[in-house]
Amino acid sequence: MLVVKDLTGGYSRHQPVIHQISLEVQPAEIVGLIGVNGAGKSTTIKHILGLLTPQSGSVTVQGSTLQENPVQFRSHLAYIPEVPQFYEELTLWEHLELTARAYQIPPEEFKQRAEYLLDVFRMKKVAKWFPHTFSKGMQQKIMLLCAFLVEPSLLIVDEPFVGLDPLAIQALLDLLLQRKKAGTAILMSTHILTMAEKYCDRFVLLHEGRVALYGTLEDMRKQIGLPNASLEELFIQVVKD
Amino acid sequence: MKTEQLFIQRMSSSWRQAIRIISLIIGGGGTPIVVGAMVIFLSIAYSRFLLWLPKDVPISYAIAFLLSLPLTFSRLRTWIQPADLTFLLPLETKMKNYFRYSFIYSTSIHLIRLLLVGFILFPLYQLRLGNTTSFGITIILLCLLQVWNSYISWLEDRLTSFQSSRYVHTLLFFRWLINGWISFFLLTKHEWISLFSFVVPILHLFYLRSMISGYPYPWMLLSERERKTLMKYYSIAGWFVDLPHIRFPVKERKWLTWFLEKLAPRQKAFSYLYWRTFFRHGDLFAIYLRILLWATVIILFLPNLWIILATLLFSIWLIAIQLPQIALLQRYPLITQLYPITQEERISCFSRMCWLLLASFTLMMVMVGAMTVVPVLYLLLIGTAGCLLGYFLSYVYIPKQIREKS
């Protein structure tokens, strides 16, 4: 589904932030992207989304790159950003309606999916409200609703749990598993390592812009030579070196 | 801490910023010429209105009503900010001087505003009601009434801490009646009734003063009002210069979106976004309506072929230069850039919206023109010119601007 090959890039040509990053996310798989602040997680995600141009390397989704076919490339993926970003001029329902139109979801299907998601995240009552009146957690839910509405083949999630209440976190995890079962490839960046260990199938541990460890928990234990280490212990081991 | 110094500091810095924006506007090309032309057009239209005005129109009522509005709406400008609720609250007992300075400043501005309104209304007064001396005396007495209004307005604000908004609105309505009453009798030279009527405001002042003793300052109200005042000024400045860092308030305008839904239920994603942004973002729709109103006034009072043509083309240009800000991707969240939609489709959605807005503006102006003595054939030619300009702006000029800025 998603193949990132030897990706080097950043915000300036003279100072790349990430170096030779390679990773893959297969359908029906959750891959955890982990690392300390400034390790290059968000930069990697921005390159995958096509918001930054790589200095070298490539990003392909379903076999095509952004340059080859931007509309097809984008129609496969949905993104949940770390910081909620919304349209000041649209209500929650209109956010969903706009997303549906952008991804050409048929009206009947849209209504069915939207009502289900509003129900799951307990947002039905505020569907006609403007997001600037929402709490930060509720604003984050708009991002979740829009992304899940699309039912994409590839879902990229950046720190999804920040600001969410426990019920919303559970709803999000359930939905992630549901999407995974339906065949969606999920790349999830998170700092909550216990959650990542429990829900992710494989991991990419970034350190100083490079892939430090890669694979299943078992693979990473072998790579570092700590056979019984938890994800947190592996993480600390890599970072302190 | 001397709180009056804080007030002076805030007032000066606000004026410095205002002067900076005004300099930008003056230095930004044709604005002074445009404003000058508008003033000339409006003054010609006003003099024509005075000539047309039938003799049986009750001018005194109209002037009294027009004067009562600035007199009644005399809120204090305090520059109270949201952070003051944390940092200035411990200084509440020392804030008396701050608000005293705010009262002096605001009353001075209210008096200037009253004199300006008086200056505009003077030709109307002179037409039927009296001469310069009697108008001068009326204005001096109204200035006294203005000082009273500014003070009572402050007391009404303080009442909001413990009284219901309905009660405060009733007081405001009562004050408006007093203003209308006194203005009317001053204008119609019933000096004794007017002077005797001044007793009512004095009694009202003592009544309110006795009520507010011990009331806290309405911090939240003042802070919110300051925010709205700033937005109002920025939205006026936004007519002439770009202020991309300012976040204008959203206006829901439910009926318009309902109408939109009925008219075009299957809009493309970006048409959906742009139309809603046009109707709800800050003042864009209000600007469209204001330009429509001004152009209507000019066409009705100066029904000349060339003036109608110039007004129409100029208005279309004024609307068109406001519109590209809706289409700039930078003003939307990041997710907008991830939609599987080409840039060409985005621009085409935007061009269509611009074209519909400008073409309907042209149509409305031709309809207004049809109410005047200008022959229909000429109006059709003017309409064609408007449509051509609208089409050029929508499909050539604006897309080019958007591509350059993106």
From TrEMBL, chain A:
<dbReference type="InterPro" id="IPR027417">
    <property type="entry name" value="P-loop_NTPase"/>
</dbReference>
<keyword id="KW-0547">Nucleotide-binding</keyword>
<dbReference type="GO" id="GO:0016887">
    <property type="term" value="F:ATP hydrolysis activity"/>
</dbReference>
<keyword id="KW-0813">Transport</keyword>
<dbReference type="InterPro" id="IPR003593">
    <property type="entry name" value="AAA+_ATPase"/>
</dbReference>
<dbReference type="Pfam" id="PF00005">
    <property type="entry name" value="ABC_tran"/>
</dbReference>
<dbReference type="InterPro" id="IPR003439">
    <property type="entry name" value="ABC_transporter-like_ATP-bd"/>
</dbReference>
<dbReference type="GO" id="GO:0005524">
    <property type="term" value="F:ATP binding"/>
</dbReference>
<keyword id="KW-0067">ATP-binding</keyword>
<dbReference type="InterPro" id="IPR017871">
    <property type="entry name" value="ABC_transporter-like_CS"/>
</dbReference>
<dbReference type="InterPro" id="IPR051782">
    <property type="entry name" value="ABC_Transporter_VariousFunc"/>
</dbReference>
<protein>
    <submittedName>
        <fullName>ABC-2 type transport system ATP-binding protein</fullName>
    </submittedName>
</protein>
<feature type="domain" description="ABC transporter">
    <location>
        <begin position="2"/>
        <end position="233"/>
    </location>
</feature>
From TrEMBL, chain B:
<feature type="transmembrane region" description="Helical">
    <location>
        <begin position="21"/>
        <end position="46"/>
    </location>
</feature>
<feature type="transmembrane region" description="Helical">
    <location>
        <begin position="167"/>
        <end position="186"/>
    </location>
</feature>
<keyword id="KW-1133">Transmembrane helix</keyword>
<dbReference type="GO" id="GO:0016020">
    <property type="term" value="C:membrane"/>
</dbReference>
<feature type="transmembrane region" description="Helical">
    <location>
        <begin position="350"/>
        <end position="370"/>
    </location>
</feature>
<keyword id="KW-0812">Transmembrane</keyword>
<feature type="transmembrane region" description="Helical">
    <location>
        <begin position="308"/>
        <end position="329"/>
    </location>
</feature>
<feature type="transmembrane region" description="Helical">
    <location>
        <begin position="134"/>
        <end position="155"/>
    </location>
</feature>
<feature type="transmembrane region" description="Helical">
    <location>
        <begin position="284"/>
        <end position="302"/>
    </location>
</feature>
<dbReference type="Pfam" id="PF05975">
    <property type="entry name" value="EcsB"/>
</dbReference>
<keyword id="KW-0472">Membrane</keyword>
<protein>
    <submittedName>
        <fullName>ABC-2 type transport system permease protein</fullName>
    </submittedName>
</protein>
<dbReference type="InterPro" id="IPR010288">
    <property type="entry name" value="EcsB_ABC"/>
</dbReference>
<feature type="transmembrane region" description="Helical">
    <location>
        <begin position="58"/>
        <end position="77"/>
    </location>
</feature>
<feature type="transmembrane region" description="Helical">
    <location>
        <begin position="98"/>
        <end position="122"/>
    </location>
</feature>
<feature type="transmembrane region" description="Helical">
    <location>
        <begin position="376"/>
        <end position="398"/>
    </location>
</feature>
